[in-house]
Amino acid sequence: MSVEVVVVDLDLSAVRAMVAVSDEGQFGLAAEALGVSQQAVSKRISKLESQLGSRLFERGVGASVVTPHGARFLPHARSLLATADAAVDAVRDSRTLRVAVHGNQIADANLMRFYVDKHPDAEVELVMMGPTRTSRNAVIEGRIEVAFARASWPAHPLPTDVVAVPAYLDALHLLVGEGNPLARRDHVGMHELAGLTAWVPGAGFDSEVADFYERLSADWGITITIERPPGGIGFASIVDRIAASTSLVTFGGEGTTTPWHPRLRRVPVVDPTPAYPMALLWRESIGDHGQLDRLVDFVTAGYEQRPAASMWIPEPDRILFHE
Fold first, then answer.
1. Residue 258: domain span
2. Nearest alpha-carbon partner for 175 in 273, 278, 261
3. How far apart (Å, rounded) are the C-alpha atoms in residues 168 and 178?
4. Helix ranges (DSSP H) in 127-187
């Protein structure tokens, strides 16, 4: 009697894509979380489905649902990734500092790229987070050493062993289409935003980002809509819709790389300028890491040039940012 042994050489990047799509609910959001294109995620999932001989997701408009076969595979996929990550950690150079950022185009990633340019010998690794698993959560859960994130979220206070220092105040501008009446303005007062509808799909998750926009809405009478477009909440989808609208607006950070669009206009907001408060977070247990002090010194020196006095930030953030 012979027994046939079938060996499937699974691609870990495909398994990671499968878990990301399950967690995020959309291929576009999974792509944002992984820092790759949506096409790359789709190809990885297709490859994995081919290897397993089963369909893992039902693709729908605006959402992807795990199939019964996918649901059975998912816990094994998570276990496989956890084992792989543990194996990497076991041989990882302890001098490398893993730093979590919100996404490839957000201000914190740009700040870190500037840091690496100025310190080419720095041993750091950027880890891209997504809307559902933010950089704040990553440092709290111990998945990385350092994170750029909003520290103050009253519903979920930081653990007492997490250190937070001011890092960057990302001044927010309005992004509007060329047909919007505000497109012809060289600036707009904060009080003039009352009654406007701002589309911020990234605030549609239980996170410190959502709390920020809820407080902005409450303080200034701005309606925040979090509708998710069929194509996901990537910048390209957001910019396309805003550029085509005569009434809808969104916010773009001064330090964030916004995709260029010929019909998109950026309008500064003044008196006061709203700003997203980013802090640098790390656990006390990694305080003796060789790369940490250099990064903290660089970030805090840069923050001293951006006082919070002339900006609007949520009340819970003012103590940390010395307003």
1. 93-323
2. 261
3. 30
4. 135-140
